[in-house]
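[[Local backbone shapes]]
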Amino acid sequence: MHRQHLLTLLKDYSPRSNYERETRDAITAFVKEHIDCFMRELLVGHITGSAWVVNKAMTKTLLTHHNKLDKWLQLGGHCDGDSDVLRVALREAVEESGVYDIVPHSPDIFDLDIHKIPERRTETVVEPAHLHYDIRFLLIADESEPLAITAESKDLQWVELDNVQQLTSEESMRRMVAKTHQTRHQG
């Protein structure tokens, strides 16, 4: 699997805080250490691609009420061997929302996060607790397109950026809201 493109994206990422610098460095070390970092079968953790989808005015974001985690989150998911993490984020955004008119704001990484996924048991499988090394991209979508809720989601909603904190207390979500405000005011 080709890791160099992601390593270049990580090198070019400009951290805005010590936390972001430490997260970038930890993800870089993880990618360098694990040739199979894009495979969900890597039980200690794996790279995931997330889509912070906003409307064209950058005033709303598209969130999913995740079925398994029971939290409001950005769209995204497993790479399943695909080392092009932006392509993963775009694919997951389309699959999880039913919105096809989604484009990257930039090919650069928008945000990074490492978070623990709890153990999950089914009748036949025990998936151990593990880490998601999440690479996040800012994507733009047409909020007038109809949404399609999948089995992965309890709900999908376009949420005003200033109302995101009413649905989640996740620090990474607040961070992406702040970055979106900054991006909107820069452009």
